[in-house]
Amino acid sequence: MLDVQNLSVNIEEKPILKGINLCVKKGETHVLMGPNGAGKSTLGYTLMGNPEYSVTDGKILFDGQDITDFSADKRSKAGMFLSFQDPLEVPGVTLENFIRSSMQQVTGQKVKLFQFAKELEQAMNVLNMNPSYANRDLNVGFSGGEKKKSEILQLLMLKPKLAILDETDSGLDVDAVRIVSKGILEYQKKMDGALIIITHSTRILESLNVDYTHVMVKGKIVHTGDGSLVQKINDHGFDQFIPEEIKEEERRARLMAAAKEAMAQAKANAATEVGAVDAKGAYL
Description:
By secondary structure, the chain is α/β, with parallel strands linked by helices. The chain is about 45% helix and about 25% strand.
């Protein structure tokens, strides 16, 4: 379904992703983990066609089609979906109207109102959402948990072939994580959809069957394993999977930063001493 080949990505002139290879088949669940700044969210945004991220090498295939140069809306129509880590508030557009409009844009067909209302009610029941939220402006005044439920509601209604969930469990309490996980399971059951779950936590994974776990560090996938890798990361962290060359690169960067700081401090001290001498001369 999704075949990422040797993908390298810059933000402005700064390299972020470096030679990413990833293959996701129908119905599979892939988990992407790694320390802060590893490039996990960048990969998600790049897969979804965010224009701020520039592909400098490699390509992205989806359902056998090269979508590397596709805009985000074309990728949505092809069957891709991205849930945001921090969903935006959209005053003046209700949640219900946003979902209905999105469905029409993706399918290219007019949505039948009765069938839509029935499906929306069923999906909101899965997520324990109060029906009144359908008539509220999109995410305006929603709590963190309500915003994440709103994202999963869109997932259930749009029925994509591939869903990329970026930190969907961040900021959620135990009950909210359980409800969101229930919605993700419902999506998989109905669509046999593929998932890429970007997360720091493993709570959302407890009720899901994880096929592959990938560890990202410094813009590279440095290790891949099955679902059991999640527990190993829980127990021992990421350090065990970081290659020695990356550790050495980080050590050199820390030493260079320390040397620059020491040089700057030395220059500041010298300037202070010169100023003191000049001031003394002027006094004499």
